[in-house]
Design goal:
- The protein has 117 residues and is mainly α.
- The chain has a domain of 81 residues.
- 64% of the residues lie in helices and 0% in strands.
- The longest helix is centred in the last third of the chain and has 32 residues.
Length: 117
């Protein structure tokens, strides 16, 4: 008897939720996402053209194919997911990306200073 009562209650609540959601007249504005900077370059591949060549070379010089798989692939398929190895790898990647961005900014500043002379 209790199971039947609970089942009917769940069914009524579900139907009420569907009815309320169906009467919604407020539509959210669409969101357009575009990549900027090196976020357009991840994961390293050849499909992004020459704009990402330096970034891809930096990644391949500092990480093994297995590590790249852990960074940009399915993390749960690696044993390091359970031991915390992926967190250490992610911190190493973050630090390397910060160094890469700083070097890119320095190069851009040097280019703009040289062209201003």
């Amino acid at each position: 008897m209790k199971l039947r009562t609970i089942s009917i209650a769940i069914l009524l609540v579900g139907m009420t939720g569907v009815a309320v959601a169906g009467n919604s007249t407020h539509l959210m504005q669409p969101v357009t996402v575009s990549a900027a900077g090196i976020s357009a370059c991840t994961p390293p591949n050849g499909g992004t053209g020459h704009a990402c060549d330096a970034y891809d070379q930096m990644l391949r010089a500092n990480f093994t194919p297995r590590q790249l798989g852990m960074l940009f692939g399915d993390q749960t398929s690696y044993p390091e997911y359970l031991s915390g190895g992926i967190e250490r790898l992610q911190k190493r990647y973050d630090a390397l990306v910060q160094q890469y961005l700083a070097a890119q900014r320095r190069a851009a500043n040097e280019t703009s200073v040289a062209s201003a002379k």
